[in-house]
Every structure is written in structure tokens, then in C-alpha cells.
Amino acid sequence: MSANGQSALLIDGKKIAEDIQNKLRDDIKTWSELHKRKPTLVAVLVGEDPASCKYIEKKMQAAEYVGIDSRTEKLHESVTEDELITKVVELNKDESVDGILVQLPVPQHISERNVCNAVDPTKDVDGFHIMNVGKLSLNMMTFVPCTVLAVIELLARTGIETFGKNVVICGRSKNIGLPLSMLLHSDARYELPGHEATVTLCHRHTPPEQLKVFTKTADIIISATGVVGLIKADMVKEGACVIDVGINRIKTQEGKVKLVGDVDFSAVREVAGHITPVPGGVGPVTVAMLMKNTFQAAMDRLKQ
Ligand SMILES: Nc1nc(=O)c2c([nH]1)NC[C@@H]1CN(c3ccc(C(=O)N[C@@H](CCC(=O)O)C(=O)O)cc3)C=[N+]21
């Protein structure tokens, strides 16, 4: 139990996602009536990975709710890189399409980088195109990856300051840890909103004792590693905010599959000031931010 005798406040990602989507729903309705069309999102899914199918389904449901036209283009697992890129280029040229996303991971024989770079940067609602990654690193306006936006949104809506704070990010993935580190230290003197934190980016070669030294001084800990139980109670400063981006499927003793994050939730909860659960934390807000990026893409298209 923490010094004030209370356990951490739970950050309700599901509720936050609903709030965002309700606001978007109103804005999209107004926009669609004005422009006589709806924003349009196309997801490209290669193969039939059950987790990918589930995420795509959630995205399609959210799109339907907020008033975005959406569809999933399904390609066989054996599709070649050229064939996949041909599909993407076709969507790039399609004037009725505002946002394109290729669900990751793609099969081993296809280069993820080549595929992400094939998406028209103005339709790249995932923010994975090399040009959008470059812009983010320069704190320029661009599409920011949805999970990164979700973390920022969870902090902002919970009233957690980042200005001058110590943030420790665990995990340096190109789609989450790295862009999150770029956004959280962003400088307000450029185009993007500045978050102005001091960021420490830890990864698999950060020695465990050193990791603990870093996390112990963090005001905000964000874990995106896929390592179950990485963040333990003795690594967390009293009152810190803990954001769990991990998604791990584990088998329980009864043989059931359970979704857990990277954080030892029940123990960390007693030390932290705020904590996100898994499920019901970052995941639903990620989907909401995809809707926001798609609406943005549609608005930008009409302005061009
Ligand atoms: N091109 C691309 N863009 C992505 O944005 C992308 C991707 N590929 N590949 C996979 C990851 C993962 N991701 C999630 C989306 C929603 C939940 C989500 O809604 N999670 C629910 C529960 C889901 C469940 O029950 O499995 C929750 O945490 O409460 C999680 C993870 C988007 N990703």
C-alpha cells in the first residue's frame, strides 16, 4: 500500500476511447453532411492471424460507430511483396479512399519497410511511412502512430503533466517505443505540440539493475516490450504514473488464455499514483486515435 494508504487511480481507457469516439461521431456527422461524403478507411490484411483479425474487427466496428466508411481488403498469406504493393498503390490512386493501413505483422517473406513506404504519406493513418517518421523526428506536423497518440491522450485526459518530467520508456520498437520517445521530448518551438519531458529509452540491453535505477526516478513509466512482469512494484516511485502498452497472451492454470500487459499490475497498483489496465487501457484508445487520424486525412484531402 502506498504512503497515503490508497492504491493507484485506474485510468479507464475504454471510457476515454468512448468519449473520443462520441466527439468524433458528432464532428464527422457535421463534416459528412457538409461535404456529401464520409471519410473512408481501407485496411489491408494479409493472412488469417487470429489476433490480427480481432484487431481489424475492432477497427471496423469503431469506424462504423463514428461514421467512417471502412472495408478490409483480405489477401492470401502467400501473396508476394509485389502483389501487396500493387494493391496499396491501387488504393493510393483511388480518390474515394482517405486512409490506408496495412495490418502488421506481414508474413516473413514480405519486407514490412517496403510495404509501409508504399502507402501514400497523405493517406498513411498509421504514421509508418519513412517520410512521416522523419517529420515526427523533426517535431513537424504529421501522422503520428495511433498507439503513441493513445499514450499521449491517456496522460492528457488524466491531467498528467509531462513538462520537465522524467519519463522512462521500456522498449525501442520502431512503431511504439521510438516514436513515443520522439513525441514525449518534443520541443514546442517547432510545429508539433511540445511535451517537453526528459526521456530515457530503455531496451533489451539495459542491465536490469540499471533499468531499476532509471524507473525509480521516473514520474511516468511506459512499458511496451512484450515481457510479462517486467515492471515490478520495487521499480516504481511512489505516486508515479504507469502506462502499460504490453499485450501478452498467457495461459492460466485452468488452461484459459488471458490478456496481460508488461506490468505486475496488482503489486504496482499499490505503489503507483495512476495505472492503466490491460485490457481496457491503451488498446481501445489506439483504435479511437486511428479514427481521429482517418478523419484528419479526409479533411486534409479536401483542403488540398
Ligand atoms: N498497421 C497496424 N496498425 C496498428 O495500429 C496495429 C497493427 N498494425 N498491428 C497490431 C497492433 C496492435 N493494435 C491494437 C489495437 C487494439 C487493441 C485493443 O483494442 N485491445 C483491447 C482488447 C483486445 C483483445 O481482447 O484482444 C484492450 O486492450 O482492451 C489492441 C492492440 C494495433 N496494432
From TrEMBL:
The organism of origin for this protein: Ignelater luminosus (Cucubano)
Listed Gene3D superfamilies: Leucine Dehydrogenase, chain A, domain 1, NAD(P)-binding Rossmann-like Domain
One matching Pfam family: THF_DHG_CYH_C
Tetrahydrofolate dehydrogenase/cyclohydrolase catalytic domain residues: 11-126
Subunit structure, interactors included: Homodimer.
Domain (Tetrahydrofolate dehydrogenase/cyclohydrolase NAD(P)-binding): residue spans on this chain: 145-299
Protein name in the entry: methenyltetrahydrofolate cyclohydrolase
Any single GO CC term annotated in Swiss-Prot or TrEMBL for this entry: mitochondrion
InterPro entries xrefs: Aminoacid_DH-like_N_sf, NAD(P)-bd_dom_sf, THF_DH/CycHdrlase, THF_DH/CycHdrlase_cat_dom, THF_DH/CycHdrlase_CS, THF_DH/CycHdrlase_NAD-bd_dom
UniProt keyword terms in alphabetical order: Hydrolase, Multifunctional enzyme, One-carbon metabolism, Oxidoreductase
Reactions mediated catalytically: (6R)-5,10-methenyltetrahydrofolate + H2O = (6R)-10-formyltetrahydrofolate + H(+)
EC number: 3.5.4.9
Gene Ontology biological-process annotations: tetrahydrofolate interconversion
CDD domains, sorted: NAD_bind_m-THF_DH_Cyclohyd
GO molecular function: methenyltetrahydrofolate cyclohydrolase activity; methylenetetrahydrofolate dehydrogenase (NAD+) activity; methylenetetrahydrofolate dehydrogenase (NADP+) activity
